Amino acid sequence: MGKITFYEDRGFQGRHYECSSDHPNLQPYFSRCNSIRVDSGCWMLYEQPNFSGCQYFLRRGDYPDYQQWMGLSDSIRSCRLIPHVMLHSIGGLRREDYRGQMVEISEDCSSLHDRFHFSEIHSFHVLEGWWVLYEMPNYRGRQYLLRPGDYRRYHDWGALDARVGSLRRAMDFY
Questions:
Q1: Residue 145: exposed, middle, or buried by beta-carbon count in 10 A (0-12, 13-18, 19+)?
Q2: Residue 121 in contact with residue 164, Cβ under 8 Å?
Q3: Where is each Beta/gamma crystallin 'Greek key' domain found (predicted)?
């Protein structure tokens, strides 16, 4: 079980709201989000309701202002608790609809370009576990949550293009 607390003001001040499960619409509970405390679990936060817009992956810890989670603004409108799983496996292809050269990954990869010699992946098949895809190497840039399932083209995971830089297993360290 996870627990996250959203605060309207920086430094864990102002109105706050505690959450322990997926929530598609946080708007009724607070108008802005400037700090967050993650007591347990891993979470993906979304700038828009219904798990859309820019995404931010947070692990257990304190985030005293939105810049600490690489936020672009103080807008958090939905959140998803990422289940703790032990096995992780993902396959990615260089072209849409599962065509082209295939790569299989079961560990974090800080630079897909250095490891596999390409910087674009157009489709994914997530076999096990949940993953966070970053558009830049070393876990930087826009983030996208990949749950078990098929992603035939980059639009399916919410990206604007097929650029990928790094990939990390979404897991909590207990």
A1: buried
A2: yes
A3: 2-40, 41-83, 129-171
How many CA atoms does the CB half-sphere of 114 hold within 13 Å? Answer: 9
Out of 1.10.10.60, 3.40.50.2000, 2.60.20.10, 2.40.50.100, select the CATH number for domain 89-169.
Answer: 2.60.20.10
The answer to whether 147 and 170 are in contact (CB under 8 A) is no
Q: How far apart are CA 87 and CA 1, in angstroms?
A: 18
18-64 pLDDT, tens per residue?
999 999 999 999 999 999 999 999 999 999 999 999 999 999 999 99
Structure tokens belonging to residue 49: 């309701």
- What are the C-alpha distances in Å from 28 to residues 16, 17, 20, 31, 102? 12, 10, 16, 8, 44
CB atoms near residue 31 (< 10 Å): 11
